[in-house]
Specification:
three-stranded antiparallel β-sheet, 11 helices, alpha+beta, single chain
Length: 416
């Protein structure tokens, strides 16, 4: 039995402290679910066997199983169970992997998967003291991104900041600052072109924000109308290589990684509807793509940015497909440098053209709300494959602490 992708949507991705700052993560998740159900009006919500949801933080308003909460807030019947998975940046792609396995084993017919993150609303936390009323001060720790409350037994070289990990990757593979800035400028240019051409119109569900704020300016994104965010806020079509070259390094005085060639802190949610072949009648439409292969891998935590290379290789082997047959790749752009080393490796393994990667822009421009990005790359990949009439595509995500995930999709309308 195979698992299929029937529909996908996401919210616009908001900037840190931007238009979505006032929207709770469970409400963002519910918005994505209602947007997905609106795209499949023939589906009775009670026919959904399970909700599997991704989230990387889980320390704030999304605590207590945000997948279950979002399903209830979206109006799904109380009898539809929901769970939340956490594989950091790969959480929603992990949710899709989990959901597809449930379908292939016959444990479910229809699974609603996705993920959410509000990095703006991620709380500060205090460690619980070992005893009551300690005399000293206690420091609040931000849960927005990166390590916190680290176990002292963990080797220090494994808990260095994500940016420093990627500076080490840059040193190893010799990826210049100029290449990174060019890749970032391309991400903004292609994302802007995709929005202007209408590509994202059917993939994105607006989010009510409660206040109308004028967008535009340098960003060119973040369009808002009637109190709703309708476009990604982080896209800057004016971001050229020359503009990006003027930014200071973020992690080392002589480093190459800047705020311009790394993904920003973001808010947003994504949702994907999976089902078996026989679910088409209940859903009221034909599937868009087949889940042809999955790959999960792990390596040294410092090398997490390189992990998609092996994850994609495993997914392709399980799909029985070589890189020469891949017509589209959606790689989550955590950093330009890690994206480039992955693309370089794939070119060495047979990917025929680097321009097949992130043809509609990537996370550097669109944003990277950690728990939502896997669902975004999967939904975008299905749409790109259909637009280009390519048969096979790869969606891949690097994951902090040294992991990578990948899924191969087969476009059912591409022919032989």
């Amino acid at each position: 039995m195979s698992a299929y992708l029937y529909a996908a949507t996401r919210t616009p991705f908001g900037r840190f402290g931007g238009a979505l700052a006032g929207v709770r993560p469970d409400d963002l998740a519910a918005t994505a679910i209602t947007g997905l159900l609106a795209r499949t009006p023939g589906l009775e919500p009670a026919a959904v066997d399970e909700v599997v949801w991704g989230n990387a933080n889980g320390a704030g308003e999304e605590n207590r199983n945000v997948g279950r909460m979002a399903a209830l807030l979206a109006g799904l019947p109380a009898g539809v169970p929901g769970t939340t998975v956490n594989r950091l940046c790969g959480s929603s792609l992990d949710a899709a992997i989990t959901g597809s396995r449930a379908i292939e084993t016959g444990d479910a017919d229809i699974v609603l998967v996705g993920g959410v993150e509000s990095m703006t609303r991620a709380p500060w936390v205090l460690p619980k003291p070992d005893r009551g009323f300690p005399a000293g001060d206690a420091a609040a720790v931000s849960t927005t991104l990166g390590w916190r409350l680290v176990n002292p037994r963990m080797p220090k070289e494994w808990t260095i900041p994500l940016g420093e990990c990627n500076e080490l990757l840059q040193q190893r593979y010799g990826v210049s600052r100029e290449r990174q800035d060019a890749f970032a400028a391309r991400s903004h240019r292609l994302a802007h072109q995709a929005w202007e051409s209408g590509f994202y119109d059917d993939l994105v569900t607006p989010v009510e924000t409660g206040a109308a704020v004028a967008g535009g300016g340098l960003t060119g994104g973040g369009a808002r109308a009637g109190g709703a965010l309708t476009r990604d806020e982080g896209i800057r079509p004016a971001s050229t290589v020359e503009v990006l070259a003027g930014l200071k390094p973020s992690f080392r005085p002589d480093g190459t990684i800047t705020a311009g060639n790394a993904s920003p802190l973001s808010d947003g949610a994504s949702a994907v509807l999976l089902g078996g072949e026989g679910a088409a009648t209940a859903i009221g439409g034909d599937p868009l793509a087949r889940i042809a292969g999955r790959g999960v891998t792990a390596l040294d935590p410092r090398d997490f940015g390189y992990a998609p290379v092996e994850a994609a290789a495993r997914a392709l082997r399980r799909a029985g497909v070589g890189w020469d047959r891949v017509g589209a790749v959606e790689l989550n752009e955590a950093f330009a440098v890690q994206s480039l080393v992955c693309v370089d490796a794939w070119l060495g393994e047979g990917l025929r053209d680097p321009e097949l990667v992130n043809q509609k822009g990537g996370a550097i421009a669109l944003g990277h709300p950690l728990g939502a990005s896997g669902g975004r790359v999967l939904g975008t990949l299905a749409a790109v494959l259909r637009e280009r009439r390519e048969r096979y595509g790869v969606a891949a995500v690097c994951v902090g602490v040294g992991q990578g995930l990948a899924v191969v999709l087969e476009n059912l309308d591409a022919g032989a």
